[in-house]
TrEMBL record:
This is histidine kinase. Keywords: Coiled coil, Kinase, Membrane, Phosphoprotein, Transferase, Transmembrane, Transmembrane helix, Two-component regulatory system. It is an enzyme of class 2 (transferase). Residues 437-650 form the Histidine kinase domain. GO terms for cellular component: plasma membrane. The chain crosses the membrane at residues 300-320, 327-344, 350-368. GO terms for molecular function: phosphorelay sensor kinase activity. The keyword ATP-binding does not apply. Pfam families: CHASE2 (PF05226), HATPase_c (PF02518).
Length: 655
């Protein structure tokens, strides 16, 4: 009988383990799928949001000392007049930047100035005289056209590079291509590459170009707007800043003013600083090229592997931890993914899109909760079905539907299983009590009969025939009494009570008649005190037996010449029957269990009458099956009062 439990336990563990394997495989597949779709519109936008958050959470970084921005700002426009300015001003500016390592002018001079034709020549001479000036190109990819400065300026410049800024689909500038290959096989280097070549940093420029062949890197922005050294155009032109300030520095000249339109959103954009000027984006790109500190994205297999690692950890958490600990651990894994991503970006210049692992880890808890509950629900349902087949009492108890719970959810099934366990526990207790009753109480008189028969065979201890028969008769009656009480209790517990109107006064009178002979032998008076005719809905034979038991107990556990009073008190829809005696009483320590089977109050008292401990259990069972209640009011040596409460019956006209 002990083998089914381990087998059932193994069956449930196998189901849970199988579901765990299925959930783990599904989570890994989802991770791989999300990793492959990381750049699609929806997932791409979410990954970009995480990228921007991680980028903005960078620690403060030092300002490069050898990169300076000469800003065409509002202050300069206010002093030099409305934009565009005369090109002679740019020529004069270059004379102030003669000691710069390289000068990149982020302004496109596509057309000559007919109003001041000499300015173009002066500007071209200044560019040529400086010798380290880079001019921009604008590449129109749709028409495959490269827009350059006018030929006079282009020939004078040391180099040129394209300055196209290509935002991501959400309009944010995160990446830059360091070279463009046109359909005509023309290679266009980036503006910052041209500046490095002009400034003599050839190795760095070539290394950056070679690295760019493996993907478009992310710009590692050093800070928000205004992070780089910036000086107003007018102050440089006016001589307020000495030329030595620009010695061996890369100088970028570009628009900064609020109305010039050369601004773009970046990952560092926020309210109040919604965009960054194009010239400062070039400064960030120039620093990244020089330091080779790009934020790069690993190949797909590396991203997929990195995304699967936290998911596999989450799978281990699902199988080994409790639901509460699992939820907290998964939240910790989510935080850990973001933390590791931050460390990878700012410590190792790697961007691993984390959305695939984040989504999968967040899906792990509800998915596992669903599948594990389904496995547990199926197991519990099967066990309940087995119990219903094996134990009819369990089937009857489980047929009741629980209020507020669906019959197909796990709480309902667990509640039913709990009820079944309680019923089986009660049945086990009852079986043990029955075995004790059979092995002890039923065997005692039989052993006495056998012992008496053995003594009777010995001449020196033989009893007189009358005395021998009298003792045999007593032991036989004791056995029959035990059997009768046992059967009566079992019948009362199992039977369905058929109730009909019963006259309580007549029923009590019959009970007194049954007990009159026993009471008369000991001069005990029986008194029935009732005020009026009372009817109750009851099973007359069972109620008669229960009341007779109470009266016989009062006779048995009382002195000779005792007085037993039975009071009937009517109260609205109920009636109380009080059985009062002046006998031994029941000690307080025994009153809690006096109505339980096989419990006797005076079992260890010298001279106490014999009994089975089933009488009061029978009485309580009968009263409860009538919808009534029985209580006890007693103290040691002061007698007992058993109070039976029953509902009164409404009689029809025929009664």
């Amino acid at each position: 009988m002990s083998s089914p439990a381990p087998r059932n336990h193994k069956l449930l563990s196998d189901r849970i383990r199988k579901e765990w394997h299925l959930v783990s495989v599904l989570l890994v597949l989802l991770t791989l799928l999300f990793s492959s779709l990381r750049d699609d519109f929806a997932l791409g936008r979410l990954n970009n949001l995480i990228y921007d958050f991680t980028m903005a959470a960078a620690l403060p970084q030092s300002v490069p000392k050898d990169i300076v921005i000469v800003a065409i700002d509002d202050h300069s426009i206010a002093n030099l007049g409305f934009w565009p300015w005369r090109r002679i001003n740019h020529a004069e500016l270059l004379s102030r930047l003669s000691q710069a390592r390289a000068v990149g002018i982020d302004l496109v001079f596509q057309e000559p100035n007919p109003a001041y034709p000499d300015d173009d020549l002066a500007f071209a001479q200044a560019i040529q005289q400086h010798g380290r000036v880079v001019l921009p190109l604008v590449y129109d990819s749709q028409r495959d056209i490269v827009h350059t400065a006018i030929p006079m300026l282009s020939r004078a410049a040391k180099a040129s590079g394209y300055i196209n800024i290509e935002p991501d689909p959400d309009g944010v500038v995160r990446r830059v291509a360091l070279q463009q290959l046109t359909p005509s096989d023309r290679v266009l280097p980036h503006f910052t590459i041209a500046m490095l070549l002009t400034g003599g940093d050839t190795d760095q420029a070539l290394h950056a170009l070679n690295s760019s062949q493996y993907g478009t890197p992310h710009i590692p922005y050093l800070g928000r707007n205004g992070h780089f050294q910036t000086v107003p155009y007018f102050n440089v032109l006016n001589g307020d800043i000495p030329p030595s300030f620009f010695k061996d520095k890369y100088v970028l000249v570009g628009a900064w003013g609020s109305g010039l339109g050369d601004t773009f959103p970046t990952p560092l954009s926020k309210a109040g600083m919604s965009s960054m000027s194009g010239v400062e984006i070039l400064a960030n790109t120039l620093q990244a090229v020089r330091s080779d500190q790009w934020i790069r994205t690993p190949p797909f297999w590396a991203i997929a592997l990195a995304s699967c690692l936290p998911v596999l950890l989450a799978c281990q958490v699902l199988i080994y931890l409790s639901p509460r600990a699992t939820l907290l651990s998964l939240m910790g894994i989510v935080f850990g993914i973001l933390l590791v991503n931050w460390i990878a970006m700012h410590g190792f210049n790697l961007w691993i899109p984390p959305l695939a692992s984040l989504i999968t880890v967040l899906l792990a808890y509800p998915l596992w909760h669903w599948r594990s509950q389904e496995a547990a629900l199926n197991q519990v349902t099967e066990e309940l079905n087995k119990l219903k087949l094996e134990y009819p009492d369990v089937k009857a108890a489980l047929s009741e539907r629980l209020s507020g719970l669906s019959t197909r959810n796990l709480p309902h099934r667990l509640t039913q299983l709990h009820k079944s366990i309680n019923l089986l526990r009660q049945a086990q207790t009852k079986r043990e009590e029955t075995l004790r009753f059979i092995s002890h109480d039923m065997r005692a008189p039989q052993n006495s009969i056998l012992a008496l028969a053995s003594l009777q065979r010995q001449d020196d201890s033989k009893l007189a025939p009358d005395q021998f028969l009298h003792k045999m008769e007593g032991y036989a009656e004791q056995t029959l009494d035990l059997v009768d009480n046992f059967i009566s209790l079992a019948r009362a517990e199992a039977m369905e009570m058929v109730l009909s109107p019963v006259s309580l006064s007549d029923l009590l009178a019959d009970c007194l008649d049954d007990a009159w002979a026993s009471a008369s032998k000991r001069a005990i008076s029986l008194n029935l005190i009732d005020s009026e005719l009372v009817w109750v809905n009851g099973n007359a034979p069972m109620l008669r037996r229960a009341f007779t038991n109470l009266i016989q107990n009062a006779i048995k556990y009382g002195p000779d010449a005792n007085q037993i009073d039975i009071h009937v008190e009517l109260d609205k829809n109920t009636v109380q029957v009080r059985f009062t005696d002046h006998g031994w009483g029941i000690p307080p320590e025994n009153q809690a269990t006096i109505f339980e089977p096989y419990h006797r109050a005076h079992e260890n008292t010298t001279g106490a009458p014999s009994g089975s401990g089933l009488g009061l259990a029978f009485v309580k069972t009968v009263i409860n099956k009538h919808g009534g209640d029985i209580t006890l009011d007693s103290s040691r040596e002061q007698g007992c009062t058993f109070i039976v409460t029953l509902a009164t019956a409404e009689l029809s006209d025929e009664h």
